[in-house]
Specification:
With 178 residues, the chain is α+β, with helices and mostly antiparallel strands. It has three helices and nine strands; from the N terminus they run βααβββββββαβ. Strand 7 and strand 8 form a beta hairpin. The longest helix has 29 residues.
Length: 178
């Protein structure tokens, strides 16, 4: 890491797996909560609800524990660094989501969304460069886009982060991103 670093975020999959473990454990608290409610309120709960509740949260917890196990068995590290000159994101095993750009080339941060005949697409968060390139910044590792923006704003005060979602529309009306 360079000495001119103003922002650094690093998280590995083992650390990320703790989130899935906590969510899996919370599922079992929901199951226990249903039985505790029935016991303390003295109101019988239908056996169908108990069955579906237990199966549903039990299956969800199984999937969450599996995801946590996978994260631990497949180590990798996400890293985002902002220096006084560069914005670098290293997303594990994804060249599409990794980039190294100059701070001076950044036009703005933005949220993007596509709209079409099938409805709204998912919102993408990222950086729009002056030449029109868009670099997606994934939030999968718990990083903060607003913290990244604040760090870059220190170096380049002209960079903006509009709260309005930039939309691209397909269909009867065609509109590209602004």
């Amino acid at each position: 890491m360079q000495d001119n670093t103003i922002y650094h975020y690093k998280k590995n999959r083992k650390q990320q797996s703790l989130l899935f473990i906590r969510m899996g454990i919370a599922c079992w608290f929901y199951i226990a909560g249903l039985f505790a409610f029935e016991y303390f309120s003295k109101n019988p709960i239908s056996s169908d609800l108990k069955t579906y509740w237990t199966l549903g949260f039990g299956l969800i917890s199984f999937v969450l524990f599996y995801v946590a196990w996978w994260h631990r068995k497949n180590p990798a590290t996400y890293e985002a660094t902002i220096t006084t000159e560069r914005f670098i994101v290293d997303y594990p095993f994804s060249p599409k989501w990794s980039f190294d750009i100059k701070i001076s080339d950044i036009n703005r941060f933005e949220y993007r969304q596509t709209l079409g005949h099938a409805g709204s697409g998912s919102v993408q968060r990222g950086v729009l460069l002056k030449d029109g390139q868009f670099h997606y910044v994934s939030m999968n590792y718990g990083n903060s886009l607003s913290d990244m923006f604040k760090a870059i704003k220190q170096v380049n005060p002209q960079v903006v982060f509009p709260s309005k979602v930039n939309k691209k529309v397909f269909g009867f009306i065609n509109k590209n991103y602004d």
